[in-house]
Amino acid sequence: MFVEELKRVFRRPRNLIILGLIALVPILLGLVVRFASHGGPRGGGGPAFFAEITQNAVFLPLAALASMETLILPLAASIIAGDSVAGDAANGSLRYLLVRRVSRARTIHAKIVAALVYTLALSLMIAVVGLFAGSILFPHHQVVTLSGVSISFLHGVGEALLAALVVGASIFSVTMVGIAVSTFTSSSLAATSIAVTVAIASEVLDAIPQLERIRPILLSNYWSAFINIFRTPVLAGPIYKDLLEQLGWMAVFYLLAVFNFSQRDITA
Amino acid sequence: MARWKYRFGIPLVGAAVALGAASLTPALTNAQTPLLQPMSASQLIAAVMGAAPVQYTGQLQITSNLLGSDASLLSNVGQGLALPEGTSQVMVYRGAGANLRLQEINAQSERDLYVTSSGAWLWNSAGSSAEHVEFGSSTQQSSSLQQMNPTEMADALVGRLAPTSNVTVGANTYVAGHAAYTLSLAPRQSGSTISSLRVFVDAKNYHVLAVTVNSVYSSSPVLQVGYQTITFASPSLSNFSFTPPAGTAVKTVTEAQLQSMFEPTNPGTKPVTLGTSWQTVVELPKTALSQLSASVGAKGLAELETPVTLTNGETAESIHTELVNLLVLPTGSVLAGAVRSSVLESDAGALGL
pLDDT tens digit string along B106-136? Predict the structure, then answer.
């Protein structure tokens, strides 16, 4: 059941196209920085690690992750999550899924796992493609962390992959919101829009200084925590807070998804 | 209809539990009062002064709320703001001997100070630049402080403070999970904007864990420097060593240059002070105003200013913050102090204005 659902998600042409488009971003970013700018965008500005792209191959996937985490990644995750139940309800396959001798709980769990795996695949795709493109376009020698300490290139690659996992996990809350809304409607577009809106609303509220008190409960508050992997020693506190934040949001929308799906009348 | 209970009730309970856990956890840990052996203020000060150096790793948080509600006025002024406002995070690693590392954590960058007995490095990740100071053999930190009896020093200090300040030991509390004594210093004189200074001291090793400055204008501290987390164990030696990465612009500063940086540029023009103790006010020369205007921006400064009529009928501009008040006199010089504006106005009167 779980493997079957994963296969369904990763075989759908639309989902593969999204993965492909996402993979294009680090390549384009690398090409633009390598050929279109003069000597690299030095002196700060732009997302995290942008100024460092030309210095080392490792920084290309990181800059790509930092610039895509705020909109493109949540959007891509929402599309899959919003479609997970609503899509099947709309095209009628949900009925056939439920007629089989598999409990509803098992069905929704399989869908949740598949959507979360896809979310992780999105961020890992950026990291892997970014590392390849970076290795071709930029030097790959020792990596200098934000603390000014040199680490080996392989160590840097490992930390970039770890950063991708953290970024992927940071989007889990958005994915779970998408799945939960998806159990209420047969319009996957509506579910996707609501999940994206929740993510953007969280980012907007996070930017208002007067709302500082509610920041710790916003799902996007610790999205830039992955940057702390590139300090020496690694500053794990914000990363744990980020993961805890995601767990909190996931728990609430997981309950909503599971209980709504198991009690709802499937009319479609 | 009972189904609705499951579909929405259980997720709602989940949301309530998550929100409750998020909001209550910090409140619960701060609300407790540890039972500690009672100490007098001078005993506590003596314990702090006589405390053996400790090794630790801690996350220091510096919060400034100087501008209070005016902070939003300045948010559009720009990046060149020199006024400290907001929160900054510094990781502190304190090792044996001179070993020290300060790591200023910014959202996308980092500044580091690495200190060992042989020298110090200042690293800035934005722009990859480093400054290096080599310590000569002459810098042996003379421990004259430790040769004196801490109890006598503490008694002398409390005795000197007594006429102007209330020095007390307040309610015990927890700072960064450690039981702490609270040493409180409050002015006896009226007219100060400082309502109290609080020093939080670890009850086990008498290390200072936090300092807060409270203002008469607000209930929450205007300045707060304290550890969010602190572990008293010797940090790994790798935290203190620094080798500038290849391609770094290294600027070497000699010890003599470093000393000259901390000396006043022209000691001839010492600022004039008025009043005593908590009511001390500094009269700054005209250049101070142009410096302030340059850092805040003329527009930002104008937004903060309020006109005040002096006793001689002339108009001065008053600038109010939660801690420091400024009075820009018609002559162009500036009176500044952690005092209420009425004190500044009477000081201006004493100057003949």
Answer: 888 888 999 998 889 999 888 788 989 887 7
Distance in Å, alpha carbon of A76 to nearest chain B alpha carbon: 25
- Residue A151 domain flag: yes
Nearest to B7 among A144, A249, A259 (CB): A259
- Contact between A62 and A49 under an 8 Å Cβ cutoff? The reply is yes
Residue with tokens 């954590």: B105
* Cα distance between residue B167 and residue B297, in whole Å: 40
B79 touching chain A per CB within 8 A:
no
Cβ distance A263 to B6 less than 8 Å, yes or no, reads yes
Both structure tokens of A206: 């996070």
- Tell whether A128 is covered by a domain: yes
Smallest CA–CA distance, residue A94 to chain B, in Å, is 19
- Structural domains of chain B, ranges and CATH numbers in brackets: 41-261 (2.50.20.10), 272-350 (no CATH)
**Is residue A268 in a domain?**
no
Of B91, B112, B236, the CB nearest to A148: B112
Give the residue numbers spanning the domain of A16: 2-263
Strands B249-253 and B129-134: parallel
The label of the residue with tokens 């930029």 reads: A138
At A176-210, the pLDDT tens digits run 999 999 999 989 999 999 999 999 999 999 998 78
Q: Tell whether B250 is within 8 A of chain A (Cβ).
A: no
Structural domain tally of chain A?
A: 1
The answer to whether the Cβ–Cβ distance between A255 and B14 falls below 8 Å is yes
Asked if the model's pLDDT at residue B80 lies above 50, the reply is no
Query: Which pLDDT belongs to residue B71?
Result: 57
Residues of B in contact with A147 (CB under 8 A): 103, 110, 112, 123, 125
Segment B277-336, tens digit of pLDDT: 888 888 887 777 777 777 677 777 777 788 888 877 888 888 888 888 888 888 888 888
Alpha helices in chain B (DSSP H): 2-4, 10-31, 41-50, 71-74, 144-147, 150-161, 255-262, 286-296, 298-304, 341-350
**DSSP alpha helices (H): ranges in B103-230?**
144-147, 150-161
Closest approach of chain A CAs to the CA of B45, in angstroms?
Answer: 33
Cβ contact (<8 Å) for B108 and A224? yes
ipTM rounded to 2 decimals: 0.81
What is the pTM assigned to this prediction? 0.83
Q: Report yes or no: B231 at the A interface, CB cutoff 8 Å.
A: no
Strand extents, DSSP E, B144-245:
165-175, 178-187, 194-202, 208-215, 223-231
Q: Which residue bears the tokens 């801490």?
A: B150
Reading the block at residue A263, the tokens are 């009690």
A25 occurs within a structural domain: yes
